[in-house]
Specification:
about 80% helix, single chain, 2 helices, mainly alpha
């Protein structure tokens, strides 16, 4: 009878340790997966940040160009077909 009680205690203790181990394993797995998702998201945002900085540089270059009156005049003539006095504009299709 005592042997069955000892076996039962050992079995319950083993089951308890297995349960705790499974809970810890699930927690570590879940945390690792969340960390993986966050790292992936971080890389995506870093890529987006680089693209936005490039776009910002392009826009800043355009702003700087628009400060030059000669550039603005040339741009208006090309884009909107404005002409100087006595100038004839002929548009050639590309």
């Amino acid at each position: 009878m005592e042997k069955s009680k000892v076996k039962r205690k050992i079995l319950l203790t083993a089951l308890l340790y297995i349960g705790i181990g499974l809970i810890l394993l699930q927690t570590v797995g879940s945390t690792s997966y969340q960390l993986y998702k966050k790292e992936k998201e971080k890389k995506q945002y870093e890529k987006e940040l680089i693209e936005l900085k490039d776009k910002q540089d392009e826009l800043q270059a355009t702003v700087n160009k628009l400060q030059d009156p000669d550039y603005v005049a040339r741009y208006a003539r090309e884009k909107y077909l404005y002409s100087k006095d006595g100038e004839i504009i002929i548009r050639i299709p590309e």
